[in-house]
Amino acid sequence: MTEKNIGNVMYGWAKDLFPINRSLMGAGVRETFNYFKNIIPELEIKSVSTGYKAFDWTVPEEWEIEEAYIENKDGERIIDFKTNNLHVVGYSEPVDEWLNLDELENHLYSLPEQPDAIPYVTSYYKKRWGFCLSENQRRKLEPGDYHVVVKSSFKEGVLNYGEIILPGKSSKEVFLSSYVCHPSMANNELSGPVVTIALTNWIRTLQDRNYTYRIVLIPETLGSIIYLSKHLEELKEKVFAGFNITCIGDDRCYSYLPSREGNTLSDQIALHVLQHTAPNFKKYTWLDRGSDERQYCAPGVDLPMATIMRSKYGEYPEYHTSDDNLDLISPEGLEGGLNALKKAIEVIEHNAVLKSTVYCEPQLGKRGLYPTVSVKGSANEARRMMNLISYCDGEHSLLQIANKINAPIWDLYAIVDKLVENKVIKVL
Amino acid sequence: MTEKNIGNVMYGWAKDLFPINRSLMGAGVRETFNYFKNIIPELEIKSVSTGYKAFDWTVPEEWEIEEAYIENKDGERIIDFKTNNLHVVGYSEPVDEWLNLDELENHLYSLPEQPDAIPYVTSYYKKRWGFCLSENQRRKLEPGDYHVVVKSSFKEGVLNYGEIILPGKSSKEVFLSSYVCHPSMANNELSGPVVTIALTNWIRTLQDRNYTYRIVLIPETLGSIIYLSKHLEELKEKVFAGFNITCIGDDRCYSYLPSREGNTLSDQIALHVLQHTAPNFKKYTWLDRGSDERQYCAPGVDLPMATIMRSKYGEYPEYHTSDDNLDLISPEGLEGGLNALKKAIEVIEHNAVLKSTVYCEPQLGKRGLYPTVSVKGSANEARRMMNLISYCDGEHSLLQIANKINAPIWDLYAIVDKLVENKVIKVL
Amino acid sequence: MTEKNIGNVMYGWAKDLFPINRSLMGAGVRETFNYFKNIIPELEIKSVSTGYKAFDWTVPEEWEIEEAYIENKDGERIIDFKTNNLHVVGYSEPVDEWLNLDELENHLYSLPEQPDAIPYVTSYYKKRWGFCLSENQRRKLEPGDYHVVVKSSFKEGVLNYGEIILPGKSSKEVFLSSYVCHPSMANNELSGPVVTIALTNWIRTLQDRNYTYRIVLIPETLGSIIYLSKHLEELKEKVFAGFNITCIGDDRCYSYLPSREGNTLSDQIALHVLQHTAPNFKKYTWLDRGSDERQYCAPGVDLPMATIMRSKYGEYPEYHTSDDNLDLISPEGLEGGLNALKKAIEVIEHNAVLKSTVYCEPQLGKRGLYPTVSVKGSANEARRMMNLISYCDGEHSLLQIANKINAPIWDLYAIVDKLVENKVIKVL
């Protein structure tokens, strides 16, 4: 893997992982984690058992599914889990019955307004069975009897999640979270873990990381609740910035969803990165939330987590249907999302509070940093440097300064290095 | 009286009270208070005597008026207090003289731009006499001599005011104030006390009131100053919300006038109620003030008093003229004003600070509060409930939460009850 | 000098001073200071020597220039310092050489886009020589040899600056600073010191000044850095408001440049004065800075200095060229700038915190301050007075009150005097 074609690499991972039948728990999830462990050896695959209590929630049984189909009177399998794992409602209980069409209808899910798409449906906490199919498939069903078969079973098992800790100079932590629990869908969800893994790989290469990185891959909702129930105090103490990584693989737009109050460092960073790289990005509010920020930013939890996305869950028509497939995401889409997150991590690593070492403006000319002849306009080039210095008061962070002087923060990194080297400013 | 036709009931009270010649002090005020005492037995009619000093002010003598008229040479009473009590300047001193028209002009008040209206004029603190008449009446006056008679007298007496205390579970108080001191005018002033009395009657019916209600009917300005001079420390200690009730009987618009800094709970409530029930309401500023908020929100007093009105004093053409009569107000206008204040009181009673009982989102599904099957869009109905819970952090009040989630607070009362009952949140 | 024709007087000073060859240090500066000392005897002319270290800076040698010219082969002086002192680069080292045109070009400065203007160029801290000429002059230079002569010298000397302290009742200080270091240019710079001197003269006439005034005339940048290096602690302790005075002589517009955070009393005053006298004024930001506020508002210095200008340095085409001459400024332009600063000083002197002496509204009628008859609209005249009183809560300054009630503060001075005299309010 080279950084150069990282978009294609990520797309390749997504392609490999797409067919696996992931769910809240079970074999599909483990297969996915094993795939990632081959890329990131530091990935630890952990588990909690059925019955484990996390705050208000309890880990259910594992669901195993062997096959599921609907047969017509002629013995033709007109709907088959094997052709698309979205065809069966997640956590469907076993069934083997003949039903007439009217009875069957109660167990069918389709989308009248998206007649070609198979919807994604689950029922984790209440036992039922059901089939999902396209509206067009449904319309073709003729009155008569159908043989419905779901060969599934429930058993005591484990809920798996992955954790990676990449230590840095400080024990203060940056927290990255993505989820693994959806079957064959691409933007939501495969783009999330795939970009997270690429980002983790890149973080591993950062020399002299200032901060420790904690990266988790968990099943959405229940997984983040479990992780919080095990690590809440530690996370509250250590985490000063973080991102939930989801829906980051198509190339239609960039999106931002805030933390609960929208005022954390992570929010400021997400906004800065998107304003300077994708100024037409879509800005959502806390009321538009729908992923694990619901847990990470819940009252009393309040981790500083913001979300940078491409097309946001719930906002694009293919969401939670069979149309959210490998055609929807692209190497460019994945790479754009990865780059935004890399820029965000770079901001975190560079965002020091700076202080001028002298009163008044330093004489930059004698250090070769300022034109020695004063002609109309001659100082324009040094202007950004002077603007930066003018806010090095020991109170503003570099990100705040960048916002004050209307500059992308990454344009300031080299200037800061030069000024620190020349002892004109220092890092507090 | 039933709640159903409360608009008509209030209008009936206004009709009964309209003819009475109220003033700063005196018999008309007492007659008005006695009328209200028949409706609200808890109303206590209190008094302070002539000469009583309240801060910078002193209670003047009572003014009694027997008759007042202008007669022409033919002995015809061309202006007569009996036909409209606005015809004489309030607190006019006695006079019995023949004057020529030029001399008379100095004592006449009319409104050239509203030629049909008799203006309302008073001179409480400086002795003078005068007649108010329509511009059309004035134009008909021919040169010649006129006999002017005011049979009035001043005497040591009392300034009356009414007070009602309706105790609640807490000794913390909601303060409601309206005024009784204007003669025959309807929107300003009869709508104020009439709606206040209806509101008081409704508050009496509230089971398990959380708060104590202090309701006063006082003459404007001097009355509120006297009441404050007697109760300032008590009011500052107990009152956490309140409304000045005035100009609340026509049905042209709704209006809001803030407290001095505009940031009290009462301001927030008034804005919330009007934004969600009459979004085109008119928003005035402190510089537009003109009623008893001038005293209640004065420096060092600073009670949290805001004002919800229909057409605001000084802003409608009929204000302080004979055109502010029973045609200007209506049962619907009065009822709309009453309802806005009732909604405001309900907000006060419901505005608790809420706290989630669990970390992370509660599992509402197991409590029957959330769909057990996850289909695209299935959570929409529970969305408002989830939004509410997401702000139950022990710091936001229900009103703040309603504003955060763009919901009318009254739509949340039942949800809060259900969540408290299910022990998902608790009231702090 | 009378106040009446102060515009002409200032213009006369500028005319007298225009020809002098000022620079960072030297005879021209001293001549200018001596001229001002004749007007303001309190002006003390101070000095620091070559080699003096001020924070990051060191005072260079004095530069003396006898003559400078370019001669062509025919012995004609085609460029001569005597005709315009902008023709030689400030601090040019001596030279006496024959050069061909190509070699000469490296030492020439002109402005292609302003072909008639001679630019103003300096090189204080690096030894070089050069000539400035109009683009039109430059285009006429034919290939061939030229005799370039700069008879200049450098010597240990002094950097001069002027200081005036005008004591007031309080030792708290208002700090005014302007600069003296530019050769023959009018808006930038002569308007600055000329208006400062007229302003100082006017401050001297203020009876019972509340505050002490510290006024300095220094060479820009190095002068303010030196002054700060000598007085930093004193200035930080005493100065509560101040203005940098520059570019205040033309009559095209008014301009405002803020302090670093833009929130000091001086900023509020500058904004108030300009909003009420020149509402179309141009509002710049800290990023547009370019004069001594760069030092006065530097991190750790943070004096409360704002800038009121006419056409701002760097923003008008004639800036730093020979076109910034006596035609650009005018008596009206200078007087307008002076008046804005006088109004600003008056605000400082009047800006007390006020407190009502009574609870509730005072009864102004008994003091003859309010109409005794209450007719519709009769209180309008007293409205501003009542508005003012309503904010006399011991927390708002008069400037804050003026902003709250949308009044020019100078319209309130007489009202405050009347209310204080009537003991209705008091000054805290």
From TrEMBL, chains A, B, C:
Residues 11-351 form the DUF4910 domain. Residues 354-426 form the UCP01524 winged helix-turn-helix domain. Residues 62-152 form the DUF2172 domain. It comes from the Bacteria. This is DUF4910 domain-containing protein. It comes from Autumnicola lenta.
